[in-house]
Write the C-alpha cells for this entry.
Amino acid sequence: LFLPIVKEDLMVDIRSQFLGHVKNLGWELSPGQSEQFDRYLQLLLSKNRVINLTALTEEREVYIKHFFDSLTVAKPVPMEEINTVIDVGTGAGFPGLPLKILFPHLRMVLVDSLRKRVGFLRDVIRELKLDQTEAIHGRAEELARQESHRERFDLAVARAVARLPVLAELCLPFVRVGGWFVAMKGPDAERELEEAEGALQRLGGGEVKQEVLFLPEGMGERRLLIVRKLSPTPAAYPRRPGIPAKNPLR
Ligand code: SAM
C-alpha cells in the first residue's frame, strides 16, 4: 500500500535535485520543461523493457548520467549563436533531446543507424510536442554527403559513438565553417586527442579546448572536447560507411 507513495516522494526528490543541479550550471527550467524531462524518463524506461535503449534503469541515474550529462555540452559553447544542432549516433536521444528541451529555439537533427531507436525517438518527439526536431535513420557517413546536411549545422555533438579520430570524420563534415563540434568523453580524452590531431586538422578543425567536469552526486568525471571549425572539410570526407572506423585518419 505504501510503495507508490514512497516512490512518488522519491521522484519529487530526484526531480527537484535535478532542477538544482541544472541551476548550478546557470539555467532555470520551467515547470513545462521539467514535465518534458519527466515524460521522457517514463517513455525511456517503459520502452527499454522492449528494446535496448539504455543500460541505466534507475530514475536517479537517468536524470544525472543521461539528462544532466547531456546538458553539459552546452556549457562551453556560445548558445546564443547556435540555431542548428546535429546529434550523431544519438541512440535514445543523448545528448540531443535534453538539449532541445532546455533550448526550445534549436532546430535539432538526431541521427542513428539503428531503426528501432529512431522509432523510439519519433515517439518521444511527438509525445513531448517538440517542434523543429527530426530523427533520421541513417549513417553519418552517408548523410554528411547530402547537400541538405553538409556544413549546415552550427554545432555537431556526439556521446559514446567512436574514438575521436573516427568521430571527427563523422561529425565535422556537418559543421559550417565557424561552427562547433563538441565530443563528450571520459577520462581517456587526453589520449584520444593526441591520436586525433592529424584527423582534426585534415577535416578543417581548429585548436581543441578541453573541459573537465564532475557529475553531481559523485556520478563520475567527464571531459568535453571542443573544436571550432576553421576551414571547409575536403570533399573526400567522410569516406564510405565503415571506413572511418576500420581505417581511422591519422
Ligand atoms: N549517444 C547515445 C548515448 O550517449 O547514450 C548513444 C550511444 S550508443 C553507444 C552509439 C550509437 O551510435 C548507437 O545507437 C549506434 O547505432 C550509433 N552509431 C554508431 N555509428 C554510427 C554511424 N556511423 N552513423 C549513425 N549512427 C551511428
